[in-house]
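Hey all, sorry for the wall of text incoming. These are the two entities for the joint prediction.
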Amino acid sequence: MEFSLAERPIALSDRRWPDAGVTRVPFWVYTDVALYEREQERIFRGPSWSYVALAAEIPEAGDFVRTSVGDVPVIVTRDRKGAVHVVVNRCAHRGVVVCNAASGNATTFTCPYHQWQYASDGRLLGLPFKKGVGGHGGMPADFDNAEHGLQQLCVIERNGVVFASFDHGLASLEEYLGPTNLGWFDRVFDGRPLRVLGYQRQTVPANWKLMFENIKDPYHASLLHVFLVTFGLFRADNPSKTQMDATGQHSVLVSQRSEQREVTGTDDIKRVRHDLVLRDPTLLDPVREFPGSATVVMQTIWPNLIVQQQSNTLAMRQLVTRSVDEFELHWTYFGYESDDEEMTQRRLRQANLMGPAGLVSIDDSEVMRLAQQGAAVGQHHEALLEMGGADLDDTDHMVTEVAIRAFYDHYRTVMEL
Amino acid sequence: MTQSAPARSRTSWGPLDGGSVRELYDDYAALLDDGHYEAWLDLFVAGATYIVTARENIERGLPLATIRCDSRAMLSDRVDALTSTQFFARRIARHVITAIRPVGVDAGSVDVTANFVVFETLVDEATRVHSAGTYADQVVVTDEGPRFATKLAIYDAPLVPTSMIVPL
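and here's what came out:
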């Protein structure tokens, strides 16, 4: 009888990036469990600003929402004085999840197991039987509440957007984003109070980096997204540009829609439907609302955020890693407090384009699933990133994969690969 | 055996026949699952609204939906996308609709609630529960029989498994 031995796992220390460098991505980056653990440590629990919430989600004292930084569950809270805190949602005693509600209002959090009670900023306020009962038991005399709080993250807020980091010595968000990407960020978050419209969430059976690759890749959008192409919202011949920060970790993809008409940019697209017209044109009635000519601005902010502006649909797409081959995508749609009812309705209708049932974004979640399936059986193979050359420079067109190359250039530095 | 108070005070079907409403929901499930989208669209009146949203948005009083169609024409645009522009892996959906009850009645319409479970089977994968939730609909009397004037599908789990291809 013959036994076929399963392939022995390759140690991370034996992994070697392909010699071709930035134009190749080995498929093991999507499947290696040890690499995923290193990502959690060096990226998500390392020196990076993770998006956690919009301040408008927790407007009042005591408001909180639950979310995650990497795969660590956290609570974003607003204390009695109005300050925002981010604390790990795990009791310092026995590790029980302290807060179960997805959102709510509470100025203290009490662990259900032994009633340890914490303040909004994570400080341990007290615990039952600390001094024992009837002279029995109790914590040691030198037990210090100050040493047993919920772990606190460093918090930063800019124009209503809250970021957090496990690294308390990180540069400011302004320095982190760099001037170009900060400028695009401030275009949407210009200080006007935001209004949260609601949530869409989905689980995607793919490695989290495939989501960033997708948004950093304008090349695919002009081919895969037939709906966008058909209605002129995004096309290869539209005026476009890709701009990175100095490190390559953040990038922005900017484009400008055109009218629905047959042009050279659609010649290579087999599935494009020139005959398709909307039976209810109010589904797509975008209006210009920002200075300048851009109608699509997709910004990826390392390590877990995509700021989406497609026409008038504005959303934070937050990545939550779950395992090497699964992530969650949390979409928080918003507008501005100053929006009139017509604009709010327009944003709500245009949300049809995006999310787990999006007329456009369904294409992406489906393709990412298939990309993961391909990677899982291609351990000794690699992806090719040569569209637009092998450079890492900003471009003024969308027929390029440069932002993915820049992303992995930075990734390799952080991960020492 | 005792009945609960809400069951005893159950609203009547008013202008509708309960059996024909059951048939409306059965047709809804069968036409969707078999991909007969044009016939499925005919189950809605022209001015119908069709909204799918997560329970958390309802509970938090937030207006966003996952699918929002303000008219049957907009729902028809969605069907066009489903059948001609969207890319997705082939799958089979099975709608199971139960507990169809009248909860409010007016001259020409009845508010109806029901539970749904949608099973999803992708090629090469085991069947899984895609979603479960409730409908809060308004059914009206027409010459062709009962039709949906509003359909609101509220799914319970906030996380949609990968994609929502087939409407709920």
